Amino acid sequence: MAVAVVTVILVVDQIIKIWVKTNMTLHEQIEIFSWFKIVFIENNGMAYGMEIGSKLVLSLFRVIAIGALGYYITRQVKAKARWGYIFCLSMIMSGAAGNLFDSMFYGLIFNASSEFYVSYFVPFGTGYAPFLMGKVVDMFYFPLIVTTWPNWVPMVGGEQFIFFSPIFNFADSAISVGVVLLLLFYRKEISEISFKKEKSESR
Predict the structure, then answer these.
(1) Does residue 99 contact residue 10 with C-beta atoms inside 8 Å?
(2) N or C: which end of the chain has fewer CB within 10 A?
(3) Rounded distance, CA 128 to CA 106, Å?
(4) Is 68 strand, coil or helix?
(5) Is the sign of the CA dihedral 126, 128, 134, 135 positive or negative?
(6) pTM to 2 decimals?
(7) Taking a C-beta distance cutoff of 8 angstroms, is the pair 132, 56 a contact?
(8) Strand ranges in 71-127 using DSSP code E only, listed in sequence order
(9) Catalytic residue list
(10) DSSP assignment, residue 194?
């Protein structure tokens, strides 16, 4: 199940990203609904476009974190942990791996994105950035529109302001949903997390 979850999320995430990258120009928007848009952006950072430290350090940290999480999931599978717990962990791991895949390979296989043309595949290694330095593709945007005053207020009217709303991708969604489900239903397992091997008692 863990392998299936990771595989499905990775495949769906990459299909969406590659479609956006090869069919939309940078910063292009497609309005699906008034409250939901597809907006093509790229970033160097972590989930939801945050940036912490250098790109190379961030990518190496991701590799280590994903490896540690994969090891922990393997141990939980062998220990016959609850399937829901393993499912949530697998969602988080696959989301992190999806964004890492962008950093690892997109700079090697794509030309640089532009506002004037869509990206396309190039011979491996001749892209816009070296290994681990590629940019992460984001596209889901839910603008938060808040009316500050009711329409009936005299002299003010219904002025609207759009507050900050992050643009994210399918991998980010998998990470967020996995974390929320862990906090809601698997706090006991979280409190018992350990990477140490249990020693069998000898008499």
Answers:
(1) no
(2) C
(3) 8
(4) helix
(5) negative
(6) 0.82
(7) yes
(8) none
(9) 138, 172
(10) -
156 DSSP 8-state letter: T
**Type and span of the H or E element at 37:** strand 36-43
Alpha-carbon distance of 160 to 148, in angstroms, equals 6
Q: Tokens representing 70?
A: 């994969």
Kindly report, residue by residue over 185-197, the tens digit of the pLDDT. Answer: 998 888 887 666 5
Provide φ and ψ at 201, rounded to 5°: -75, 135
d(CA 43, CA 138): 8
Paired residues of 33 in beta bridges: 36
* CB-CB neighbours of 54 under 10 Å: 11
DSSP code at position 124? T
pLDDT, tens digit (0-9, with 9 covering 90-100), for 74-116? 999 999 999 999 999 999 999 999 999 999 999 999 999 999 9
Strand partners, 161: 146
Nearest Cα neighbor of 25 from 120, 105, 98, 107 is 120
Distance CA 94, CA 7 (A): 8
CB 40 within 8 A of CB 25: yes
Length of the chain: 203
CA distance linking residue 189 with residue 82, whole number of Å? 9
In a 10 Å sphere around its CB, with 0-12 CB exposed, 13-18 middle and 19+ buried, how is residue 161 labelled? exposed
Give the integer Cα–Cα distance in Å for 137 and 47: 11
Q: Record the tokens describing residue 32, joined without a space.
A: 């699906």
